[in-house]
């Protein structure tokens, strides 16, 4: 029984069993490997994607539970989203493995709170572990992106 | 210090040398060949026209080939900058490529020619090598341009990637590749005077991988997808040293997508068409374990045994007993004297917990054996693979990818997870790609931990409150004991004592009696970012603060006096810089208390002043002022990044990190039980670099061990309570 998903604006029929977590469908079946496995129990945030604009941990989300929700992954940001530009400008990544999840959490934050204060950043980002400890630059890059004039179409794409 | 101890002390900065020995010990030695010759036998990797480290493209791109893996340290930026500086390349056109496995071309100079990354040595061991490579290629392009233009080579300049002559002639590297490739490389390329550096040491030296690591395209082992590839998971025994007794694969084989289930040396492998199918297959598997040879002691029991050894309650075994790592003056007097400060410290096992759990892709049984993964020590991985498939080490191809962190975990004598993958791939055969995936729980429970460690310290002081006698006992498992049989062994496993051994505080103490014992325990242990310093820095630095308080002296002043006695000028310089920048002599911001610590490891010295407060009984760390002397600073922004990240890594362990075992079973599995530092708990680190013209030293590890004692010392100042064990916060 194929499950139909809306991923990055495309309607896709996927063959994985319905109990398969979205993470493994994205990675193994759809080849969208930017979304990472880190813990499998929604503790680390490396697998964060957006469902209708809200951050979700794809490792704990069976595809049968998604329904018509629009899924957005790191691949949809296009590489020059204001957050990605800030990430590059400040050389945020170290090993880089957690950064797709960090950025997707930050996208959701800025979409709902364009000028987040420290408490808002903590609230949005504390679920994303970075073992390299790039936290200080992550916070700085979110503020940098929030201050940058955001190209409307990029934000719109991320919201889609 | 006697002669043999001096020799050991020198070795402390060179644990890598033993890696080579261990590597060779497991191999067939070919008489008459050099080490790298043996290790690269069978390799098809060849250097290009400009040597192994540089490639030039017609579009003007310069590619620097990195013999070192990039798993966060930023070394690719620094390595590229070293070559680009001597080449006078246009930094914006410089790219970095990961070298294949070949010890002869890409051996680590500090590891005796073994290809590997560790001991914070990437920049240090490449310094002269890449400068020479850059200068040689530059000279070849200059010769080619001079010949083509009919002008003296001495009149040809290179600047920002442009080769030029006063006559107006100019060209980029890309336009002269063919001609330059024919020029014989100079025998002794002339290196720049460091004063003429225009790139090294500037903020222009930035990471080359930030874009790929911000848009999801950076490729890690976990992301490898190949035609016909299978994914494997393994059911491992619950205790170290246990083996499969029986297993029932019937239910597992019924799971859709599961292709095969079979026993390997380390457990039962489930091979499937997708990760999810493999995981479901493993859930359905029934395995019973033979635990007759398993380690069944718990960590609390082990720690009690360690304490009893250190206190003398339990006598040391005749074999593998106490060994002195520092001995000075009449050692017997270190046990005498009244009014001594006596402290006992405990440090738990720690998992590395890299974000990307261990994994590997292997192809065996058709064509040359090939591995694709984040190989930290390709030579060891080649050797261990070659042994499994009866081939020459050099014949094992390795494509090294980015790795999602390592912190030491990806380099071990057994290549544990690599060999596991190779065994599965061998069984699958026909060269079919197999990706071994470990879950977070597999990774946390697989061992290779920072060893459980106990220190007992007894210090008496002179009339001015400075150490007069210092008795030190360390009980910990030996990491180097994990080396294969036949490897050369040092009298002392310096990975267990580095940081206590060689400490300026011991140098400044007239009578020292310092000894190590390394009990045998069936829990695999390994280097964990900054290795011995993960515990010795805490012990030395917290002891010093306790002594300073007892003497009624300021901790910074007290250290200064000891560094002056010991002639520890670099320690003094970083201490002074950190104290100045932190405003040590001025009051801390309201509500905050400062703590200081200083430690040297991997050739660099780091001082930190941390501002700390207690919130609901838990330490909160705010501003952390860091000063580092790492010799010539190549990439200042990446040095700062390593201080920020290293501090978080050390703080995570100091506050929360702990692996415990109950009856031999690891109690933790995932981040819900193995707590790590999160964003809101991260400090704000400021980094200041001591100007230096000495060769560059490490930055990946030295930022890690200092924060724990700096926080402990601030907490001591807050509530007068010593912190004699890590972690400080327990659930």
TrEMBL record, chain A:
SUPFAM superfamilies with a match to the protein in the record: 2Fe-2S ferredoxin-like, CO dehydrogenase ISP C-domain like
InterPro entries reported in the protein's UniProt record: 2Fe-2S-bd, 2Fe-2S-bd_dom_sf, 2Fe-2S_ferredoxin-like_sf, 2Fe-2S_ferredoxin-type, 2Fe2S_fd_BS, Beta-grasp_dom_sf, Diverse_Oxidoreductases
Stored Gene3D superfamilies: 3.10.20.30, [2Fe-2S]-binding domain
Every 2Fe-2S ferredoxin-type domain range: 1-77
Mitochondrion in keyword set: no
Recorded superkingdom: Bacteria
This protein's name: (2Fe-2S)-binding protein
One example GO MF annotation: 2 iron, 2 sulfur cluster binding
Metal-binding is among the record's keywords: yes
Alphabetical UniProt keywords: 2Fe-2S, Iron, Iron-sulfur, Metal-binding, Oxidoreductase
Pfam families, sorted: Fer2, Fer2_2
From TrEMBL, chain B:
Occurrences of domain Aldehyde oxidase/xanthine dehydrogenase a/b hammerhead (ranges): 215-293
Any one GO molecular-function label of the UniProt entry: oxidoreductase activity
Entries under SMART domains matching the protein: Ald_Xan_dh_C
Record-linked PROSITE patterns: PROKAR_LIPOPROTEIN
Pfam families per record: MoCoBD_1, MoCoBD_2
InterPro entries, per database record: Ald_Oxase/Xan_DH_a/b (IPR000674), AldOxase/xan_DH_MoCoBD1 (IPR008274), AldOxase/xan_DH_MoCoBD2 (IPR046867), AldOxase/xan_DH_Mopterin-bd_sf (IPR037165), N-heterocyclic_Hydroxylase (IPR052516), OxRdtase_Mopterin-bd_su_IorB (IPR012368)
SUPFAM superfamilies listed in its UniProt record: Molybdenum cofactor-binding domain
Listed name of the protein: Xanthine dehydrogenase family protein molybdopterin-binding subunit
Native source organism of the sequence: Phenylobacterium kunshanense
Lineage, opening ranks: Bacteria, Pseudomonadati, Pseudomonadota, Alphaproteobacteria, Caulobacterales
């Amino acid at each position: 029984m194929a499950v139909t998903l809306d991923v990055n604006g495309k309607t896709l029929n996927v063959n994985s069993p319905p109990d398969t977590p979205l993470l493994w469908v994205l990675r193994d079946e759809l080849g969208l490997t930017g979304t990472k496995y880190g813990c499998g129990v929604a503790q680390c945030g490396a697998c964060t994607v957006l469902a209708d604009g809200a951050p979700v941990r794809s490792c704990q989300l069976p595809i049968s539970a998604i329904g018509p929700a629009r899924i957005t992954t790191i691949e949809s940001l296009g590489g020059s989203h204001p957050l990605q530009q800030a990430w590059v400008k400040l050389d945020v990544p170290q090993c880089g493995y957690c950064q797709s999840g960090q950025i997707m959490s930050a996208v959701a934050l800025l979409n709902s709170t364009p000028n987040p204060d420290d408490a808002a950043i903590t609230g949005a980002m504390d679920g994303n572990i970075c073992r390299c400890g790039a936290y200080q630059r992550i916070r700085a890059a979110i503020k940098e992106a929030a201050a940058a004039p955001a190209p409307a179409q990029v934000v719109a794409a991320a919201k889609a | 210090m006697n002669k043999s101890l001096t020799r050991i002390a020198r070795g402390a900065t060179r644990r890598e040398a033993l890696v080579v020995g261990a590597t060779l010990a497991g191999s067939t030695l070919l008489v008459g060949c050099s080490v790298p010759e043996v290790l690269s036998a069978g390799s098809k990797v060849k250097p290009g026209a400009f040597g192994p480290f540089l490639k030039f493209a017609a579009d003007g791109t310069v590619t620097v080939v990195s013999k070192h893996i990039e798993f966060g340290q930023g070394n690719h930026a620094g390595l590229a900058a070293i070559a680009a500086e001597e080449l006078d390349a246009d930094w914006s056109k410089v790219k970095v490529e990961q070298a294949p496995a070949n010890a002869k071309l890409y051996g680590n100079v500090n590891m005796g020619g073994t290809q590997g990354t560790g001991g914070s040595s990437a920049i240090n061991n490449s310094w002269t090598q890449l400068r020479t490579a850059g200068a040689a290629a530059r000279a070849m392009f200059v010769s080619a341009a001079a010949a083509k233009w009919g002008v003296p080579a001495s009149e040809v300049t290179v600047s920002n990637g442009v080769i030029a002559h006063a006559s107006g002639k100019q060209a980029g590297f890309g336009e002269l590749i063919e001609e330059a490739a024919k020029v014989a490389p100079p025998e002794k390329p002339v290196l720049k005077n460091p004063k003429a550096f225009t790139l090294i040491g500037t903020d222009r030296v930035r990471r080359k991988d930030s874009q790929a690591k911000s848009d999801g395209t950076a490729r890690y082992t976990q992301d490898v997808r190949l035609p016909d590839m299978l994914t494997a998971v393994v059911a491992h025994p619950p205790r170290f040293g246990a083996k499969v007794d029986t297993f029932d694969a019937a239910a597992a084989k019924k799971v859709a997508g599961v292709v095969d289930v079979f026993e390997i040396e380390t457990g039962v492998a489930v091979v499937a068409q997708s990760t999810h199918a493999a995981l479901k297959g493993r859930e359905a598997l029934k395995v019973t374990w033979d635990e007759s040879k398993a380690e069944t002691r718990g960590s609390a029991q082990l720690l009690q045994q360690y304490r009893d050894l250190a206190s003398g309650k339990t006598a040391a075994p005749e074999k593998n007993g106490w060994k002195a790592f520092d001995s000075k003056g009449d050692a017997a007097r270190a046990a005498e004297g009244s009014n001594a400060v006596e402290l006992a410290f405990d440090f738990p096992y720690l998992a590395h917990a890299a974000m990307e759990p261990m994994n590997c892709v292997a192809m065996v049984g058709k064509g040359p054996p090939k591995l694709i993964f984040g190989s930290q020590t390709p030579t060891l991985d080649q050797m261990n693979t070659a042994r499994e498939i009866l081939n020459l080490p050099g014949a094992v191809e390795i494509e090294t990818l980015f790795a999602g962190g390592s912190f030491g975990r990806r380099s071990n004598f057994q290549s544990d997870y690599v060999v596991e993958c190779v065994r599965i791939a061998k069984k699958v055969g026909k060269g079919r790609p197999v990706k071994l995936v470990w879950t977070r729980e597999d990774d946390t429970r697989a061992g290779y931990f920072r060893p459980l460690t106990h220190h007992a310290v007894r210090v008496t002081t002179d009339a001015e409150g400075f150490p007069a006698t210092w008795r030190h006992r360390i009980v910990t498992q030996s990491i180097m004991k994990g080396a294969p049989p036949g490897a050369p062994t040092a009298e002392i496993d310096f990975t267990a004592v580095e940081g206590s051994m060689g400490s300026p505080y011991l140098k400044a103490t007239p009578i020292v009696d310092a000894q190590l014992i390394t009990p045998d325990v069936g829990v695999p242990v390994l280097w964990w970012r900054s290795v011995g310093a993960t515990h010795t820095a805490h012990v030395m630095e917290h002891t010093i603060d306790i002594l300073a308080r007892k003497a009624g002296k300021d901790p910074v002043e007290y250290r200064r006096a000891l560094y002056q006695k010991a002639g520890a000028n670099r320690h003094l310089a970083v201490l002074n810089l950190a104290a100045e920048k932190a405003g040590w002599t001025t009051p801390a911001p309201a509500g905050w208390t400062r703590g200081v610590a200083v430690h040297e490891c991997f050739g660099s010295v780091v001082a930190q002043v941390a501002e700390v407060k207690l919130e609901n009984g838990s330490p909160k760390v705010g501003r952390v002022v860091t000063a580092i002397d790492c010799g010539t600073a190549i990439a200042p922004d990446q040095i700062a990044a390593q201080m920020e990240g290293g501090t978080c890594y050390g703080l995570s362990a100091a506050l929360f990190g702990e692996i415990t075992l109950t009856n031999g079973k690891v109690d933790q599995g995932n981040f819900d039980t193995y707590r790590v530092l999160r964003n809101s708990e991260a400090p704000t680190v400021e980094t200041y670099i001591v100007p230096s013209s000495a060769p560059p030293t490490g930055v990946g590890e030295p930022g890690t061990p200092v924060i724990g004692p700096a926080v402990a010392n601030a907490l001591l100042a807050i509530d007068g309570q010593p912190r004699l064990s890590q972690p400080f916060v327990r659930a």
